[in-house]
Amino acid sequence: MPLFMDVHNIDGVTADAVAGAHEKDLATQDEFGVSYKRYWVDEKAGKVFCLVDAPNAEAANSVHRHAHGLVADEIFEVSEHE
Questions:
Q1: Domain of residue 14, residue span
Q2: Helices 57-67 and 15-28 sit at what angle, rounded to 10 degrees?
Q3: DSSP per residue over 63-74, as a string?
Q4: CATH of the domain at 67
Q5: Predicted confidence pLDDT, tens digits, the chain (82 residues)
Q6: pTM for the structure as a whole
Q7: Torsion 55-77-75-43 (CA) sign
Q8: Residues 6+ apart with CB under 8 A from 17
Q9: Which of the listed residues 3, 13, 40, 80 has the most CB atoms within 10 Å of its CB?
Q10: How many domains, in total, are found in the chain?
């Protein structure tokens, strides 16, 4: 399954708020065949990054839309390298 990194721009974002939204994503993801792996928060920059296995970018964003309404501003297909 493809791997995506999405980017959210949210003024005033907090790590606590993102943790709550991530829990809602986890509760919703199976409905869309998606698996959210990790997320990162930069409170100073107002940025949130989510790493997700999904059949396509729209499925990844659909989880956010249905779970809490905070859809990504950008989504990039990425590949993992060590």
A1: 3-78
A2: 110
A3: HHHHHTS---SE
A4: 3.30.70.3090
A5: 899 999 999 999 999 999 999 999 999 999 999 999 999 999 999 999 999 999 999 999 999 999 999 999 999 999 988 7
A6: 0.91
A7: positive
A8: none
A9: 13
A10: 1
